[in-house]
Design goal:
Blueprint (H helix, E strand, L loop, with lengths): L1 E4 L2 E4 L4 H13 L2 H6 L25 H4 L4 H13 L4 E5 L6 H10 L7 E5 L4 H10 L5 E6 L6 H17 L7 E5 L4 H8 L4 E4 L13 H9 L4 H14 L8 H14 L4 E6 L6 H13 L7 E3 L14 E8 L5 H12 L4 E6 L5 H19 L9 H13 L10 E2 L3 H14 L5 E7 L4 H18 L2 E6 L8 H6 L4 E7 L15 H18 L3 E6 L4 H16 L1
Parallel strand pairs: 3-4, 3-5, 5-6, 6-7, 8-9, 8-10, 10-11, 12-16, 13-14, 13-15, 15-16
Antiparallel strand pairs: 1-2, 2-11
The structure holds 6-O-phosphono-beta-D-fructofuranose (F6P).
Length: 554
């Protein structure tokens, strides 16, 4: 049976009864009201509640509270517009970069306003690719970090600061910072005479910060109507005050939560092209909030829609359409999936701008899912481990003994390692392609092809993330979530390296240490991982790897 709730249509099959019961229970317990009242018992029985709980609920008020800042942001955006900047380059990771990237990719920059580029990779080729796209003298840099200490962000800053210093006597006039009050980044920004510092509310965690200055200052800079966005988000916030069965956030949470508890934990996003960028933001929200203590929801983003035979019964499909339907071809596939018993949650958006209120609805849903699954939805306990191990790997950077990546040139060893992996595949597993490679379109296309190959050979869910970007998104889930990840970590040997000014390391050393650190953290957490070095020629390496995967299946 299909349930319709506002612009949501849910085909829930055998799970419908449990979901309905959950909603009734939540209504009786006044869950919506208790979340808004910031009642810690929603998530914990502990007194006092654990850290990062009651002091991380500021996102509830952003749609209203941020309205007071709109004029200031608009005036600033007009100033930048009037000065003829062609690009704004955002330097940041995870919660500080994903929402702005989604905004640029979904809405574009208004005529005459700068185009927003995001740098969230420490691969030297990625840094160079940004440098090659911009005219330094007409570029504004946005250094964005809640903590103000993230190594990637500060390294990017150092690199572009030094370039800018050679181009102008007043480099600070080309930099702004977005950060919490009193962070080392704020100090740095004052010391280097940044043009502006925008402070964000400290009681909002990174992945819940899209509607704070982290998302909205960059949005204003590309010419978005952020006042209207806050209005739309405010309407959704009001809807999320309603009793559970009419509450868009709680309906999503009950549906997803009950199906995850029944083993369908691969939340697979299918979108209309107009909103194709949106799931990259949802991915961090869901994976980092819920993937801990051996539990979690695995977001599957960017995987081509297949036939029933491509999937096992661990999937929930979430479809974002503009209007009621996708293309006839994709609708036919969805109908086949529905017939095969897969649950489908459809969100029929009136237009692309509707992703803004959806952001609020999904934040509310994620907070409620934390309660349902019994995890703390606002911390990220396993991210630190990879950071610490990366730091250790930096110290041992010169020691090749320490590098256990298999070379793609030793193809037999690679096949053997893949064979072990293939033999270990069990129902409910997923392949996580972790590519510490240049995030360039041709490489991404080859990785997508490899991913498709893996899905059809192994019939498991597949995810793809570029490192170190994914460390701040799905990284928490990989380490803290269920032991169902099979991680294929891919590294390369960059042809050109870049020194990070004011430090004693290069970008190639940093990304290599991050990859090693994460591999070690994954092993310590009991996940399966194979590391493969594709050498200098990544495309050739990927072709060889696809061949090796097929061999391993024989
Ligand atoms: O904004 P910051 O402090 O630089 O952090 C970036 C990202 O790193 C994390 O803290 C951990 O991966 C994310 O939660 C966050 O969005």
């Amino acid at each position: 049976m299909t349930l319709t709730k506002g612009s949501m249509r849910l085909t829930l099959g055998v799970y419908e009864r449990a979901i309905q019961q959950r909603l009734n229970e939540w209504e009786a317990q006044n869950l919506a009201g208790r979340i808004w009242q910031r009642d810690a018992t929603v998530w914990t029985a502990q007194t006092p509640p654990p850290p990062e709980l009651l002091d991380r609920l500021g996102w509830l008020d952003l749609p209203v509270e941020m309205r007071a800042h709109v004029d200031e942001w608009r005036t600033f955006a007009e100033e930048i517009h009037a000065e003829g900047f062609t690009h704004a380059v955002l330097l940041g990771m995870g919660g500080s970069s994903l929402a702005p990237e989604v905004f640029q990719q979904t809405f574009g920059n208004r005529n005459g306003y700068p185009e927003l580029l995001v740098l969230d990779s420490t691969h030297p080729d990625a840094v160079r690719a940004i440098e090659n796209q911009i005219d330094l003298t007409r570029t504004l840099f946005i250094v964005s970090s809640k903590s103000g200490t993230t190594i990637e962000t500060i390294s990017f800053f150092r690199y572009f600061w030094h370039l800018m210093r050679e181009a102008t006597d007043t480099p600070g006039s080309r930099f702004i910072a977005i950060t919490d009050p009193g962070t080392p980044l704020e100090e740095l920004a004052h010391a280097r005479h940044f043009r502006r510092v925008f402070n964000a509310p400290p009681d909002v965690g990174g992945r819940y910060s899209a509607l704070s200055p982290f998302g909205l200052v960059p949005a204003a800079l590309i010419g978005a109507d952020v006042a209207h966005w806050l209005q739309l988000a405010g309407d959704m916030a009001d809807a999320c005050r309603l009793p559970a069965s009419q509450n868009p956030g709680l309906v999503l949470a009950a549906a997803i939560g009950e199906m995850v508890r029944a083993g369908r934990d691969k939340l697979t996003f299918i979108t209309a092209p107009e909103v194709a960028a949106f799931p990259a933001w949802l991915e961090q929200l869901i994976a980092e909030s819920l993937g801990k203590e051996g539990k979690g929801v695995v977001p599957v983003v960017g995987e081509v829609l297949g036939e029933p035979g491509d999937y096992s019964n661990d999937r929930i499909f979430v479809v974002f359409s503009i209007g009621e339907t996708l293309t006839p071809d994709r609708e036919a596939r969805l109908a086949a999936l529905e017939k095969a018993g897969h649950p489908i949650i459809r969100l029929m958006l009136p237009n692309a701008e509707a992703i803004i209120p959806e952001m609020f609805a999904w934040e509310f849903a994620t907070a409620a899912l934390g309660a349902l699954l019994g995890v703390h939805p606002f911390n990220q306990p396993d991210v630190q481990l990879a950071k610490d191990l990366a730091r250790r790997a930096m110290k041992n950077a010169a020691d090749p003994q320490d590098d256990d990546a298999l070379s793609i040139e030793n193809i037999d060893t690679v096949i053997e390692a893949l064979r072990d992996v293939v033999e270990s595949v069990a129902p409910g597993d997923y392949i996580a392609l972790q590519a510490f490679l240049p995030p360039l379109p041709d490489i991404e296309a080859s990785l997508q092809a490899l991913r498709l190959e893996a899905r059809s050979l192994l019939r498991v869910a597949t995810t793809l993330g570029f490192g170190p970007r994914f460390l701040h998104s799905t990284g928490q889930l990989h380490k803290g979530g269920p032991k169902t990840a099979i991680c294929l970590q891919l590294v390369d040997a960059p042809m050109v390296d870049l020194l990070v000014p004011e430090t004693d390391y290069t970008f190639a050393q940093l990304i290599a240490a991050q990859a090693r650190g994460d591999a070690e953290a994954l092993r310590q957490r009991g996940q399966r991982i194979v590391r493969i070095n594709l050498g200098h020629d990544v495309q050739n390496g990927l072709t060889a790897l696809a061949g090796a995967l097929n061999e391993a299946m024989l």
